[in-house]
Structure prediction request, 44 residues.
Amino acid sequence: MYKLFLHKRAAEYYKNLEKKIAGKINKAIEEMSQNPFEGTQIKN
Prediction:
């Protein structure tokens, strides 16, 4: 498992999100921490 860290500004923004949106982000972060190399490549 990998550790993911949020930038200070991102963490502040995250604290103020609605619970529904924060839940979606939590799921995405959990999936990235399992395998950050899996998924669609978005870098050109």
